[in-house]
Design brief:
The complex is a heterodimer of chains A (168) and B (495). Chain A is an all-beta fold and 168 residues long. Chain A has strands spanning 3-7, 10-18, 23-27, 30-36, 43-49, 52-61, 64-69, 72-79, 92-94, 99-104, 111-112, 117-123, 126-131, 136-141, 148-149, 154-159. An 8-stranded antiparallel β-barrel of chain A has the order 1-2-3-4-5-6-7-8. In chain A, strand 5 and strand 6 (52-61) form a beta hairpin. Chain A is elongated and about 60 Å long. In chain A, 29% of the residues are buried. Mean pLDDT of chain A is 85; it is low at 163-168. Chain B folds into 4 domains: 9-108, Rossmann fold (3-Layer(aba) Sandwich); 138-205, ATP-grasp fold, A domain (Dna Ligase, domain 1, 2-Layer Sandwich), CATH 3.30.1490; 211-447, D-amino Acid Aminotransferase, Chain A, domain 1 (2-Layer Sandwich); 459-490, no CATH class. Chain B is globular. Chains A and B meet through strand 1, strand 2, strand 3, strand 4 and strand 5 of A and strand 17, strand 18, helix 13, helix 14 and helix 17 of B.
Chain lengths: 168, 495
């Protein structure tokens, strides 16, 4: 089984070929010998790949790994088995940017259709409407009118209209 | 006061890197510092670095830092004799300066009337013109289109015609020759009438590919003014500077001297006290025009400090305490070249949208030619409460080329992980051939937008990055290293 990692928006497969005597990884069929796999700790680290030393800085956050290498910053996400790389109709309404809630356009328990307004927010002096990513029932509203929020903060979430094992 | 030093304790009415910068200067001068903060920043670096701290209350953190009465009460309560306002917040608020003086405290800035004079676009422009400083030629608003056209043609071309009540580009056009003038004026006026109910139009000289040149001045308030040479701040996004340098990259010596003299002339006319900056727009043909005067310490002051060796914050305090200017004009020399990069929490690839997050890892390059001005802590949250500027990376080199190479090396080493920053973008700007040769103007980042996008990596580099990323995931490492010996020996993990 190969792992799928989304690096700067592009999904790639990485597979563990061997562990001994050296780690060998395969990326889309290309094999790489990793003589020194580093310590995996937050901060500055060193790897040796194909006898070449590689210095970098990294941190793992709940959203994934952020890596700084060769003067560039990369973000990577490890996909779980079966997980789609593009966020398909999610049940969660996350903040696209930091801002404040201007109005709450629904109540908990309301049935909404895809595209219905959930929240009106203001960010950088612009008002915008956050709408339902899919049809469902408003399960939670986690912010109050006037409250400010950060980027990616969960603002509200939807439950399925009918009970059962629906696949969101 | 009978003591030699009327200022022994200073309240710093600011936060972030500039508060840290001022507190450092105070410590070096043997003076006591008092920080102010909102409750959300109780553990902030500037609070820890100061000798004392006073909490300000406010509906928002920014409101607290703008609260004149509370700031003055904090100064009194702490026994500070003076207030340093930094930049932003209350630094250019004439009412604040007045209130500070009324409270019997020293304001480390200019007289309140000077702030008021320079803070108004029209009054400062008229003041500059009346004292022989060039202002961009313009025609005053009128709805008499015949006299307008005659006056406008006398300015020369190209001209920018605008609705005087205008905004949003309505009724605005660039006129490149006399043939187009009448028609453009008529159209602008009728559009202005339609959109704003006011048909008056005005015109000013349109400057193509202008450069932003500014002059650092220092005045003692009795008419003594010196300049500390010019800075070039043409690299801007959203009308805000992101890269500044000193001296300017390609200003002929004679022209640089002329611009610096104009700035001194203006500051002298105003009996200017404090560090200040006179900003100019420079046309490609060498004409320059007064833009505005900033009556405070500037964000980019370190590039001037690097090339002149003069500590501007110390100079501000000395002037406020009545000790006069640090030196005469003849004693100031410039040496080498300095570049400042503003490190901002923003996504440069998405229209410079501000970003928030938590600084999970911070690694700062260290060399004698690097100044990293900041008040950051690992683990600190970056919120939307304040300006997105996190820090300033300032370098010095023997010449511009060395400064550029040192800036690129320092940016490459700098790591601020956990919040998206413009560090990579700044590197890309500085690495462009146009920046290297100094072909700068204020629309540089728009003109080169395509070239400033990140390069595609070649597959070999991409594989190395991917391996480093994969080996940074705990989950991935777990599957490599935490397997039974037998399975590890057999290899090829299957589930």
């Amino acid at each position: 089984m190969a792992f799928r990692i989304v690096l700067d928006g592009i999904e790639r497969e990485i597979d563990i070929i061997r562990r001994r005597p050296h780690l060998v990884l395969s990326i889309n069929g290309r094999e790489h010998v990793v003589q020194n796999p580093g310590d995996g700790k937050t901060g500055l680290g060193t790897l040796t790949i194909a006898d070449q030393s590689l210095k970098f800085a990294q941190v793992e956050t709940p959203e994934g790994v952020v890596l700084r290498l060769g003067g560039r910053t990369y973000s990577a996400e490890l996909l779980a088995e079966g997980e789609a790389s593009d966020n398909m109709a999610s049940s969660n309404l996350h903040a696209p940017m930091p801002g404040a809630v201007v109005a709450i356009d629904v109540a908990i328990g309301d049935t909404v259709a895809t595209g219905d307004a959930i929240l009106t927010i203001e960010s950088m002096k612009l008002q915008m409407v956050l709408s339902a990513p899919r049809a469902g029932i408003v399960e939670n509203i986690l912010v109050a009118e006037g409250e400010s929020f950060g980027k990616d903060q969960l603002l509200a979430n939807l439950a399925d209209e009918t009970e059962g094992d629906a696949n969101a | 006061m009978t003591t030699a030093n009327p200022i022994t304790k200073v309240l710093v009415a600011n936060r972030g890197e500039i508060a840290s910068r001022v507190i450092r200067a105070l410590r070096e001068m043997g003076l006591t510092s008092v920080a102010v903060h909102h409750s959300v920043e109780t553990n902030a670096r500037h609070v820890r670095e100061a000798d004392e701290a006073v909490e300000l209350t406010g509906e928002t953190p920014v409101a607290a830092h703008l609260d004149i009465e509370q700031i003055i009460a904090a100064a009194r309560k702490s026994g500070a004799e003076a207030i340093h306002p930094g930049y932003g917040f209350v630094s250019e608020n004439a009412d604040f300066a007045r209130a500070v003086e009324k409270a019997g405290l020293f304001f480390i800035g200019p007289a309140a009337d000077t702030i008021a004079l320079m803070g108004d676009k029209i009054s400062s422009r008229n003041f500059a013109r009346d004292h022989g400083v060039p202002v961009a030629p313009s025609v005053m608003p009128t709805d008499d289109l015949d006299s307008f056209a005659a006056e406008a043609a006398a300015i020369g071309f190209p001209l920018l015609i605008k609705a005087s009540a205008g905004g949003g580009g309505k009724g605005m056009s660039i006129v490149r020759g006399p043939d187009e003038l009448h028609e453009a004026a008529r159209r602008a006026s009728s559009e202005a009438q339609r959109y704003f109910g006011d048909g008056r139009v005005y015109a000013e000289l349109y400057i193509e590919r202008p450069r932003h040149i500014e002059v650092q001045v220092l005045g003692d308030g009795t008419g003594e003014v010196i300049h500390l040479f010019e800075r070039e701040c043409s690299i801007q996004r959203r009308f805000q500077k992101i890269i500044e340098e000193a001296p300017s990259s390609s200003l002929p010596k004679a022209l640089a001297a002329e611009i610096c003299d104009s700035a001194v002339q203006l500051a002298k006319a105003a009996n200017y006290r404090n560090a200040g900056t006179v900003e100019f727009i420079l046309a490609q043909d060498g004409r320059y025009f007064f833009l505005e005067m900033n009556t405070r310490l500037q964000v980019e002051h370190p590039v001037t400090e690097y090339i002149t060796g003069i500590d501007l914050v110390r100079a501000q305090i000395d002037v406020a305490a009545g000790r006069g200017l640090p030196c005469t004009q003849d004693q100031i020399t410039q040496s080498g070249h300095s570049i400042e990069c503003r490190i901002c929490a923003e996504n440069a690839d998405e229209d410079f949208r501000p970003e928030t997050g938590r600084i999970a890892f911070l690694s700062v390059p260290d060399a004698p030619w690097i100044r990293f001005e900041h008040a950051l802590d690992q683990g600190q949250k970056v919120t939307a409460d304040f300006d997105p500027m996190l820090a300033k990376l300032v370098v010095h080199g023997d010449d511009r080329e060395q400064a550029i190479n040192r800036a690129l090396a320092a940016l490459s080493e700098l790591a601020v992980l956990g919040v998206t920053t413009n560090i990579d973008y700044l590197s890309r700007v500085i690495a462009t051939p146009e920046f290297r040769v100094g072909d700068l103007h204020t629309a540089f980042v728009n003109e080169h937008a395509e070239a400033l996008k990140p390069d595609k990596l070649d597959p070999a580099d991409m594989d190395r990055v991917l391996i480093a990323a994969a080996l940074s995931f705990h989950e991935f490492r777990h599957l490599i290293f935490d397997v039974p010996e037998l399975q590890a020996t057999i290899g090829h993990w299957r589930n």
